[in-house]
Amino acid sequence: MHHFAIHHCRLRKGLTSGLEGEEMPINIPGFAGGDRTNIDLPQMQQDLLRDLVAIGKPVVLVLMNGSALAVNWADEHVPAILEAWYPGEEGGTAVAEALAGDFSPSGKLPVTFYKSVDQLPPFDNYDMKGRTYRSFTGEPLYPFGYGLSYTNLAFSNLKFDKDSLGANDDLTATVEVKNAGKMAGDAVVQLYVSHPGVDGAPIRSLAGIQRLSLNPGESKSVSIQIPNRNLSVVTPDGTRRIVPGDVQIWAGDGQPVARVGLAKAAGIAGCPAPDRHSWAWSPETDGDPDRFSLQPASPCECRADDSESRYASGKNEDRPTRQHFPRAGDSGSINPVSLLVFVSGGMAFLYFP
């Protein structure tokens, strides 16, 4: 009898344009003519993933897909998940370098990853209520703008160029960003605007974004302009206006949301009012991204004129859980990884080093 070591195995699995296309002549659970009846992994892939995790070896799941997936089981049982989308011909190089720790990932989700289609309104209901991060009040699997890296960021000194806003005013926010970790990386600073208590206003809306590179221990000040249109809301009668009331700004590495097993993004909140303080979430200690302290402050408030706008617009655990990107050690590499699972466009590759 001969015994062979398994080096790799190639299986026909995954989401492809043949499944995610328009009016596809397919009859597979979870799919209906190109539409999705659920947003889970195909059952065969889910079964495969469970079997691989049951082996007891460390697993990194690399997702290659063209739409959001409800990978709830993987979120709870797989130590690390890397979302690669459909990455193109250099995708293999990018994935390999990310897993090896050659660079610190800095990608952010451009869509919300829901836990289930049950969290969404019926498909034939075209009302935006309950859809997207702007109006979804449930608990997402991964929020819009979410993404981990191999370093830690801290935000401080959020300031504004105005104490109050008129109907035609733009706003510039300035914030200091520090790489509090031990690996160089990019910070993707996201600015979100909220209008508490304003009828028809979104929970929050992305108003500005800027990427900057930071070496370990380095701090930089970044200024982001929020155009007047991005400070407005659409009222229930369909009019876009700059409305009176409070305006709150969040500057951070993602949205100010969290759930069990998913730490809140580092960031700082404030508003353009004089003699007020801001409050911030930041790591208590370097290398401890899952523990945050709230720095309380006085209430802040920004009043806007009632007139129309000029426009018509952790802790580094041995086994990290529920993380979108794999958490690395001090060197940035994932070590040890003895089993990689690539769920790709039509193929699943298993590699046993």
Overview of this protein structure:
The chain folds into 2 domains: 1-105 and 328-353; 153-324, Immunoglobulin-like, CATH 2.60.40.10. The protein is built from 4 helices and 18 strands. It has 353 residues and is mainly beta. A 6-stranded antiparallel beta sheet has the order 9-8-13-14-15-16, with no helix packed on it. A 5-stranded mixed beta sheet has the order 1-18-17-4-5, with helices on one face. It has helices at 43-54, 72-77, 91-100, 132-135; strands at residues 8-11, 31-32, 35-36, 59-63, 80-83, 153-160, 171-179, 185-194, 205-214, 219-226, 233-234, 240-241, 248-252, 267-270, 279-283, 292-294, 339-343, 348-351. Mean pLDDT is 74; it is low at 1-14, 274-338 and 344-353. Helix content is 9%, strand content 26%. A hairpin with a 2-residue loop joins strand 2 and strand 3.
